[in-house]
Amino acid sequence: MISSVLPTYSRAPLHFVKGEGTWLIEADGRRFLDLGSGIAVNALGHANPELVETLTQQAQNLWHVSNLYQIPQQQELADRLVDATFADTVFFTNSGTEACELAVKMARKYWYEKQQPDRVEIITFDGSFHGRSSAGIAAAGSEKMTKGFGPLLPGFVHLAWGDHDAIKAAITENTAAIMIEPVQGEGGIRPLPDHCLKGLRDLCDAHGILLILDEVQCGMGRTGKLFAHEWSGITPDIMMVAKGIGGGFPLGAVLATENAASGMTAGTHGSTYGGNPLACAVGAKVVSIIADDTFLGEVNRKAALLRQKLEGLVAAHPDVFESVRGSGMMIGLKCKAVNMDIVNAGYAAQVITVPAGDNVIRLLPPLTITDAEIGESIKRLDIAASAVAAQ
Ligand SMILES: *Cc1c(COP(=O)(O)O)cnc(C)c1O
Q1: Most buried of the four, 66, 263, 293, 326, by CB within 10 Å?
Q2: What fold, for 30-48+293-371+384-388?
Q3: Where are the domains of the chain?
Q4: Measuring CA to CA, which residue among 382, 328, 333 is closest to residue 358?
């Protein structure tokens, strides 16, 4: 008999009842170090006191009003994002894949309004992940995500990751945009080198193509800059954001330049929940904390410490791990053993990691992790690796 919850997930036998900073507490009382953050969502840790305060204050006043009315919390969050980034304008969603939907619509509408309605193709890359909506799975294109779901949204051109010549060859007069994650998350923590991102920007400029960056996982301070593309010095035309921006409250956004957003006039897009007062009050607090040089300086300092210790861990377990990769607090351990075996051994050692593609385990700790917790994480990962080596 089918379970009452649609069985689309394979779940670990863990049942958490409370979160405190970097810690998750199991129903049986065990304390787990959380290096997954609900997949880069709890960027400021669990039950962060400042966020609890903001959420409860807003909850006592107003949870939801329609976008038929003015929403000052949404205005504040949009202003903060526009101040801190390349963007001139922001639309709020509830998730990353909804941000993908709008990014695709925005790029196509842009060309439609420029009297080039055939310019609908969006170039995407192997190993990418843009969510599970029809546009999201069509954009990523992998068989794993698309098989059995009928005709896919047309117009996506899938290329190998890192094949520069293929990109040039794929551009035609119908190319509307290139969509890419600056650091692939689900695909196995693969950072795009800065010079590649610059190259993509140049290519887009040369052909008048829009550059869409998916920073749903790598954004919001995860790599040590507010957004990962800042490391390369370039800016996108359109950017997708979600995960960390709500700190655990469902919230996403599409950021865009005035030019890229010029087709999106009143009535062309909307969302019932998107940008409601509760979500945006929390989001504005999250952005105010993360978009701060002192905070990001600490993220970079701790990321360097974690990275150095992980290099030691990998060197100590050459049969289990191959290498460390990633950027800031978005780290992948490329495994020699089966990645899921290490994740499971981590559960036994009370440390949480997340599997990713390419036989990688992902570490996406809260950005607020302490030095002592980094030390304790390494101890527990060492126990897990020893257990796998002994299997
Ligand atoms: C998680 C993720 C998404 C999808 O976000 P949802 O909120 O799950 O819809 C899209 N892009 C990237 C890069 C992601 O990591």
Answers
A1: 326
A2: Aspartate Aminotransferase, domain 1 (3.90.1150)
A3: 30-48+293-371+384-388, 50-290
A4: 333
Domains 30-48+293-371+384-388 and 50-290 share a fold: no
The rounded distance, in Å, linking the Cα atoms of 242 and 249 is 10
Nearest atom within ligand 1 for CA of residue 184: 13
Atom of ligand 1 nearest to the CA of 218: 13
Mean pLDDT along residues 103-115: 98
Mean pLDDT of 294-304: 98
Please give the backbone phi and psi of residue 192, each rounded to the nearest 5 degrees, phi first: -80, 125
Q: How many of the other CB atoms lie within 10 Å of CB of 21? A: 18
pLDDT classification of 162: cutoffs 50, 70, 90: confident
Average pLDDT over residues 38-56: 98
Does the structure show a pLDDT above 90 at 163?
Answer: no
Centre of ligand 1 to C-alpha 186, Å, is 9
For residue 270, pLDDT over 90 is answered with: yes
From CA 373, how far away is CA 370, in angstroms rounded?
Answer: 5
CATH topology of domain 50-290: Aspartate Aminotransferase; domain 2 (3.40.640)
188 CA distance to ligand 1 centroid (A)?
A: 14
Ligand 1: lining residues by beta carbon, under 6 Å: 95-97, 129-131, 181, 185-186, 214, 216-217, 242-243
The pLDDT confidence band at residue 164, using thresholds 50, 70 and 90, is: confident
Over residues 55-108, the pLDDT tens digits come to: 999 999 999 999 999 999 999 999 999 999 999 999 999 999 999 999 999 999
CB 196 within 8 A of CB 204: no
pLDDT at 243 over 90: yes
Cα separation, 94 vs 254, in Å, equals 11
Burial of 50 per CB tally in 10 Å (0-12, 13-18, 19+): middle
Nearest CA owner, ligand 1 atom 10? 130
Report CA(214)–ligand 1 centroid distance (Å).
Answer: 8
CA of 355 to the centre of ligand 1 (A): 15
